[in-house]
Amino acid sequence: MHVESKKILKIAFLNIGIAITNILLFSEGFLGVRIFGFSAFQTAFGITAIMVSIMAFLVGNYYILTTRDVQKYSNKEVMTHEECLRAIKRQNLKRTFAKDIVMIEEQADRFAIKQRTINEILLQKFNSEGMSYAKFNRAILDLENLFYVNLRSILNKLEVFDEADYNTTKRGYSRFNSLKGVNVVGDKRKFSKEFMDSKMKLYNEYIRFVSEAVEDNEEMLLKLDRLLLEISKFTSIEEGQLENMSEMKEIDDLITKTKLYK
Fold this sequence. Notes:
Layout: H1 3-26, H2 40-66, H3 81-89, H4 98-125, H5 131-160, H6 163-179, E1 183-185, E2 189-191, H7 193-233, H8 246-260
Antiparallel strand pairs: 1-2
């Protein structure tokens, strides 16, 4: 169902619920509460009911209208590069990875720009139907796919990383080390040093994985930069010369090596 349709239904249910509640409260056939009743209690109750209804109407409608419905993707559901990037951006509330996510956004923009620039230069030097152009274009598309496979791996780690528990564990671990003894975390349960070391090691592995994956993306961008520089030096490129470039071989080697680990 479309997001706007969901909001309309929520608003309708809220307002109908408020209206039905007031009918039950103030109708003579039901509770028959009066704003100015026969007693101070009934008067106070009636005024309170009206105020609560007004607040529910204002706050409820405002909340529904201003709250952004976030579509959740599992990694299997991420079908396009754009969806993958959006899913990663939605993880930016996890402050542990805030800088990495900003860097990933910048890397994706830079990759797209370099890809367009290289393609424009090649079209100046090759026929788009030629074998050399086709080979090069396939290699760059494979590199782009590798770039986003890497991003999906990052997304996997971001989605399962429990930052609230990580922050609690980190604070407890720091206190544990400062006291050099048994630490008390959360619900006052005591944990051994071995357990605390193991838990922090696990979270640090998540953090290290994301950091190294971001660095891997930077390496792909560097290879594109080298290739772009090399291509721009030539006024013309002979058929077969492109695939013999060391930069093209590096890209092919990177793609081949990564495919072996899938």
